[in-house]
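Fold this sequence, please.
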Amino acid sequence: MKQIVIDKPHSINVEDTYKPQPPNSEVLVKPRFGGICGTDIHIYEGNFIGTYPVTPCHEFSGEVIEVGSSVSNVKIGDKVIVDPNVRCHQCDACRTGRLNICENFSAVGVTRPGGFSELVCVPESNVYKFENCSFEAAAFGEPLACVLYGQSKINYMPGQKVIIWGAGAIGLLHLMACKNIYGCNDITIVDLEHKNLDTAIKAGASHTVIADDNLEAKLSEINNGKFDIAIDATGNSNAVHTLFKHLARGGQALLFGVYDQKAELKLSPFDIFINDWEIKGSLTYNHDFYSAVKALDNELIKPEILIGLKISLDETPNIIRKIADGERMGKVQVKIN
């Protein structure tokens, strides 16, 4: 069978290997679609927590083709979305319900083989069955779970004005969640690219603003430039600084991007005090995967419009190299089987 292997930083290839056999408590999944994520690029570049070699992809859907001897709730032929985060359920964090900060976690596609493979073994407890949505939509289960965890930290009230910084796949999933799950009707989204903002309109944005030299003036024309809820999905510290300029008194800020570890946020404690701001961070997800699966399968969230490019497994190494070199392609999905 074929699989993608990153054997060291900046070395990625398609390789042939043997069919894996699922252990007693695991299932053998035939991946159908998998999304290329920033984490996959970090692995390619040498910045991740695991060891080489590794088969990437932690965002994928597929079909169960074999089950281990002790598997009881999943059967051959089930369509499944894979929760890649394998928690120990023994550490203090797990035992107190903070699964997202498990002290001993492993992850499919990061520390164990992932979805860019014609076959992959996954623990039974980490697959979620679905019926209605497409395999393409189902492959958004992991990023949507992350988004829903972040969204759960926001206290929504009727009539609030929302601004989202970044109209990539994550920012647009936040947009869909704000509108379709929490009922927000006034959502502004900011991005560097007109193409992304066009997709934002299709996804339900009320206003779109290009991040150019006229950004401040354009935002001042919307809600007088102040917003009750501000979500950063860029991972850019400069965007975060601008975000706080437009956060209303009593506002809530969700810093959702993955930031450079050396980046600093210069924010006046007095401003936090006088404006009564709430500032939240968000790391992966906790008990949100089931909700993500249901939102996709019930088509409350329809993420197919976020896909910018579909490629084959054989094309994947070259595309990952191009993304790492800075080429922007939108959300790329790999058709695996």
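The CA atoms of residues 108 and 114 lie 5 Å apart. The chain has two domains: 2-145+285-335, 154-281.
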